[in-house]
Design goal:
Length: 76
């Protein structure tokens, strides 16, 4: 589910707890989304500043886009 969360984030999703997003990205429940965020922060993959989430390492973000998800920079 953490990978699904990262994919949704890279595609510009901001409302992770919305019913459709939970279903589209197989994130489970809205409570599970909170656990996923906490896990990614504790693994030092994401930073949360207020309501904004961002990757701690921009190169990791680029690697995910290009090699893991095989997307172009526009998320396609």
């Amino acid at each position: 589910t953490q990978i699904n969360f990262l994919e949704a984030m890279l595609k510009g999703v901001t409302q992770f707890s919305a019913r459709q997003m939970l279903a589209d990205y197989e994130l489970g429940t809205s409570a599970n989304v909170l656990r996923i965020k906490d896990a990614l922060v504790s693994k030092e993959i994401l930073d949360i500043n207020g309501n904004q989430m961002e990757f701690r390492d921009p190169m990791y973000k680029n690697w995910l886009i290009k090699y893991y998800f095989k997307q172009n920079q526009n998320g396609v």
